[in-house]
Amino acid sequence: MAELESLETAAEHERILREIESTDTACIGPTLRSVYDGEEHGRFMEKLEARIRNHDREIEKMCNFHYQGFVDSITELLKVRGEAQKLKNQVTDTNRKLQNEGKELIIAMEELKQCRLQQRNISATVDKLTLCLPVLEMYSKLREQMKSKRHYPALKTLEHLEHTYLPQVSHYRFCKVMVDNIPKLREEIKEVSMSDLKDFLESIRKHSDKIGETAMKQAQQQRNLDNIVSQHPRISAGKKSKKEACASSELEVKNTSPVSEQDSGILDVEDEDEDEEVPGAQDLVDFSPVYRCLHIYSVLGARETFESYYRKQRRKQARLVLQPPSNMHETLDGYRKYFNQIVGFFVVEDHILHTTQGLVNRAYIDELWEMALSKTIAALRTHSSYCSDPSLVLDLKNLIVLFADTLQGYGFPVNQLFDMLLEIQDQYSETLLKKWSGVFRNILDSDNYSPIPVTNEEVYKKIVGQFPFQDAELEKQPFPKKFPFSEFVPKVYNQIKEFIYACLKFSEDLHLSSTEVDDMIRKSTNLLLTRTLSNCLQNVIKRRNVGLTELVQIIINTTHLEKSCKFLEEFITNITNVLPETVHTTKLYGTTTFKDARHAAEEEIYTNLNQKIDQFLQLADYDWMALEPGSKASDYLVDLIGFLRSTFAVFTHLPGDVDVHSTMSGKVAQTACMSACKHLSTSLMQLLLEAEVRQLTLGALQQFNLDVEECER
């Protein structure tokens, strides 16, 4: 058993030795560990030493066999050693030289390395700057646009900057600063554009007067042109082409919407080659701030806010414009300025309506116009009621018509204004009546109530040209001669015609029919005759110092004026082209007026005669107790009869009814004589029947009888 184990151990040791001999030195560790793991490592060491000795003996044998070759080899090796030393020295020297020479190369290589690094950095920097420079350029452009107040392009630049350029370089700090500033820039653009809008609103508020004045001038020019065309149809074709060209130009502008800050907002531009051309009303205001602000707010999504603000501010301005000055009624300029401001306001709004899409709409404009119309009409009713000068009322009417025509040209309904003018027409008639009342008073007060003397043919024709008078017998008479009427007849007649002309002036441009104009003139003329002239004649007749001669002349004058009424009818017919036979045509009441005045003058004659008779009778001093009568009639009665004789001689001048060669043959003369005789007889009877006369003598009765007989003669 022991022998068997010894054999196994020996075999194991032999294997390990072979393995040590054949195995790489680096891998011998596990083999040796197996020796030390066992208990026979002493025996293994013995075996190992025995193996070493065997190998030493083999080496010695080998060396002894190859000794000469070994010596030769050593000799060769020593030679090689010398050569190697030389080679080493050469290599060392070469290396030293190489090192010396390589220092500059190394320095150059380091420099090249640094250059390459710098080049790479520069290239990277250029690439980054290529991305950053457009951003910076856009930002600089943005600042320049904002500085030059080109806010709409600035907003577009901001949009490009935010959505196109900044995302490419968003990791840089300056880009983050820009991104943070974008809302502030938007708000700044918004505020600045709103500031421009406020300046614009303030500007148009100040320029409304001038805009309206220009628009009304254009309307006046157009109306004058239309009048010329209507009077001279031959030139209408030439004018029409220009008018159509202007209309097409205006239509083109109205159908275009502003798209840049360069839009000036002008409605139309008149032909610059035409002399004395009134500039367009919109040429006075630059509308670009409105367009820019509208676009900016639209881009920012705040269009509704902008529209609301604009309309609110314009409503406030409308209320200010529609507030008339307290002294507007004093001068025409006050009305003109008021109308100019209103026209200017609505011209601007009409322009905004046609050059923007939705900033204002037709409903908004109509609402403003309804408010303006009601306030304007109310203001005109109030202030026109203060006007007492017919010339001012007429000028106001013309101004209102021009105001209405101007706004009608922009599409605003103005029928209510023309209706109101009919109300002002009544007031105009009243002011005319007041004015002509003064004119008639001056004519009647300054008249000498004597027939007009004529010394030559020229004066005769002049008077006949002023008053429609025809008398064949008077024409045959030689100069000098006299018209039967006094100077107030042609003067009154001409003033009536002037009044008719004044009424006609007011009816111009009111778009009334001929029948309406005719009716208006006739009604006003009737008021002039029945109220104004009638009152003036009555006042003259009733005044204290009027004499019988004057009353007789008034009767003559009113008779001729009564006959002239048919010529006034013809005059009105000629200027209105409405025949008197037309249905509903108003008739003139002049005949009644002059008849009433004549009757009043006749009554005044009768009254004055009776008063004179009473004055003479007051001089009667009868001695009712006289024993004998006098030899002649009483002195007072003789004087009274002499007065009556001279008075009735005046009646020979009465027209028509009175024969020139008879003393009293006409109706007025007869009535006056009958009235005087009746009054005288009644008064004489009263003298006898007075209570104070209690007794009288035969001589007193005989004297009284002499007086009565004198009256009978």
Task: Outline the structure in words.
With 713 residues, this protein is mainly α. Among the domains are: 172-226 and 283-412, no CATH class; 428-450 and 486-606, Exocyst complex subunit Sec15 C-terminal domain, N-terminal subdomain (Tetracycline Repressor, domain 2, Orthogonal Bundle); 619-712, Dsl1p vesicle tethering complex, Tip20p subunit, domain D (Methane Monooxygenase Hydroxylase, Chain G, domain 1, Up-down Bundle). Helices cover 75% and strands 1% of the residues. It has helices at residues 2-22, 29-37, 41-65, 67-147, 151-165, 173-231, 236-254, 288-299, 303-321, 332-355, 362-384, 390-409, 415-446, 457-466, 472-476, 488-507, 514-542, 548-563, 565-576, 590-617, 635-650, 667-689, 698-712, and strands at residues 453-454, 481-482. Strands 1-2 form a two-stranded antiparallel sheet. Helix 20 (590-617) packs antiparallel against helix 21. Residues 234-275 and 655-665 have low confidence and may be disordered.
String of helices and strands? HHHHHHHHHHHHHEHHEHHHHHHHH
Number of helices: 23
Described by its quaternary structure, the protein is: single chain
Helix content: over 70%
Structure summary, number of beta strands = 2
The chain-level mean pLDDT equals 79
Unreliable spans are 234-275, 655-665
Distance between the termini: 226 Å
Shape field: rod-shaped
Radius of gyration over C-alpha positions, nearest whole angstrom:
66 Å
Beta-strand content bin: under 5%
Q: Output the structural class.
A: mainly alpha
The main sheet orders its strands as: 1-2
Largest sheet data: 2 strands, antiparallel
Domain Exocyst complex component EXOC6/Sec15 N-terminal: 47-216
Family: Belongs to the SEC15 family.
Biased composition (Polar residues): 221-230, 254-263
Protein name: EXC6B protein
